[in-house]
Amino acid sequence: MLVSRYKIDDGKPLDILRQVENKSAIKPRQAEIEVELLKNGPAQLVAGKVTFRQLAQYAKDHIYVAAVYDDQETKILGVRSVVPAHATLNNLVAFFGDIDVRKINEKKLTDYQVARLTGTITKLRKVSLSIVDRELSKARRLFSIALG
Q1: What's the longest Cα–Cα distance across the chain?
Q2: 3-state DSSP call for residue 128?
Q3: Residue 45's pLDDT is what?
């Protein structure tokens, strides 16, 4: 997994995720990303060619990490409860898997909601609406990451 960080016009950092086969493929892939960025602009690259599984793994590695506190015991990074967040991401990955992020629409999200409420997803039990809503809020956070 290659994560490239760029600063776009407004100074905001832009993380771009791409799959690479090995270490020797990283530099050519970065060059491709830079060419695409110059040609199409940042909006085209952010959600392009990223599967839901890759996006969830990125979130596990960078967002849903153990909390880091400063001297005044204020949380500055991560989440207090890593295990439930990772479990939720695993549930979402069980349904969406390797679907391209750009192809997940309202119908697929509704299908996920129905499948979780009825318990038709393999190896996942039937749950209440509040749990599904919490899982969908994590999905919403992932999509906001993908879109910048």
Answers
A1: 47
A2: coil
A3: 45
Q: Tens digit of pLDDT for each residue in 38-77?
A: 665 555 444 457 889 989 998 998 899 999 999 999 998 8
Q: Which residues contact 134 (CB under 8 A, 6 or more apart)?
A: 88
Q: Could you give the CA distance from residue 65 to residue 50 in angstroms, rounded to a whole number?
A: 21
Q: Mean pLDDT over all residues of the chain? A: 83
Q: Which amino acid appears at position 45 of this protein?
A: L
What would the two tokens of residue 147 be?
A: 């879109």
pTM here is 0.67
Tokens of 145: 């990451």
pLDDT at residue 47, rounded to an integer: 45
SS (H, E, C) 63-109: CCCECEECCCCCEEECECCHHHHHHHHHHHHHHHCCCEHHHCCHHHH
Angstrom distance (rounded) from CA 64 to CA 78: 6
Q: How do the domains of the chain map onto residue ranges? A: 2-46, 52-147
Judged on CB neighbours under 10 Å (0-12, 13-18, 19+), 124 is middle
DSSP structure class, residue 24: G
More confident residue, 23 or 90: 90
